[in-house]
Amino acid sequence: MQQYLNLCQRIVDEGVWVENSRTGKRCLSVINADLEYNVGANQLPLVTTRKSYWKAAIAELLGYLRGYDNAAQFSAIGCNTWNANANENQVWLENPNRKGEGDMGRVYGVQGRSWKKPGGGEVDQLRKIVDNLTKGIDDRGEILSFYNPGEFHLGCLRPCMHTHTFSLLGGTLYLTSSQRSCDVPLGQNFNQIQVFTLLALMAQITGHKAGTAYHKIVNAHIYEDQLELMKEVQLKREPFASPQLHISPKIKTLEDLETWVTLDDFEVTGYQHHEPISYPFSV
């Protein structure tokens, strides 16, 4: 939690104003942020200086792992964060590749589960990683990438957190997640939960001990219409201790994650938090 607050304070103190062409707003930005989450000790990096809707973050992660491509699919499992990008992004609405209401196109989990090969066919990146790790194999290429420049025009949004690299050392599984861009007041709250949960889930279904998750952000920013709330409200609150995440031991395979797992299979205990803060969202 303190890492998150330190990053927020760093942006306030050291950030440079940058115009964002997609949103038409300015961002106070810094370059390069490195965070670490102790998954093995189950110290869930859940923001406590405002209420965090952790269930939606995990639901979104499940949708990615399943390769969902429509906002309605995410909403059905408890995550509404894709509704705006799928249905209110004017550039995407005018894109001839958009298939209709709720369509997100070939973004995030679609790339992770069905990356198209130049000569035809598809690559299921996640399946390869799970199969290797289950066998105790780390070929130093256990990489899940959502970043496919050749298909940006086929999706409503380029991936922000774009690459997850798994490393297996002596029976302990580690994760390095790379993110090109981060809306820190809103997105980071989701992203750090997802990085933590992804490592915890992958360790559980491949039979390994979870180690540390390393989270690298290239461009971390606060939008101009979020800055006052960050400075005058959130950064003036005292954080609480980190809560813990409990994942149902019934989840044992990738097929479980693909089929029957719901938010009821996840529980957070010891979560104390301050009142919610309604930060503006930029489409």
Structural notes for this entry:
This protein has 283 residues and is α+β, with helices and mostly antiparallel strands. Helices cover 31% and strands 25% of the residues. The protein is built from ten helices and ten strands. It has helices spanning 2-14, 54-66, 71-76, 83-87, 90-93, 109-113, 125-134, 187-206, 227-232, 254-259, and strands spanning 16-20, 25-38, 115-116, 122-123, 143-145, 161-169, 172-183, 209-223, 244-247, 266-269. It has a six-stranded mixed β-sheet. A two-stranded antiparallel sheet has the order 3-4. Strand 6 and strand 7 form a beta hairpin. Helix 2 crosses helix 8. The longest helix is centred in the last third of the chain and has 20 residues, at 187-206. The protein is globular and about 50 Å long.
Q: Would you spell out the secondary-structure blueprint of this structure?
A:
Layout: H1 2-14, E1 16-20, E2 25-38, H2 54-66, H3 71-76, H4 83-87, H5 90-93, H6 109-113, E3 115-116, E4 122-123, H7 125-134, E5 143-145, E6 161-169, E7 172-183, H8 187-206, E8 209-223, H9 227-232, E9 244-247, H10 254-259, E10 266-269
Parallel strand pairs: 7-8
Antiparallel strand pairs: 1-2, 2-8, 3-4, 5-6, 6-7, 9-10
Using only C-alpha atoms, the radius of gyration works out to: 18 Å
Helix/strand structural class: alpha+beta
* Overall form: globular
Side by side, the strands of the main sheet go 1-2-8-7-6-5
> What gap, in angstroms, lies between the N and C termini?
26 Å
| Beta strands, count | 10
Low-confidence stretches: none
Number of helices: 10
Order of helices and strands: HEEHHHHHEEHEEEHEHEHE
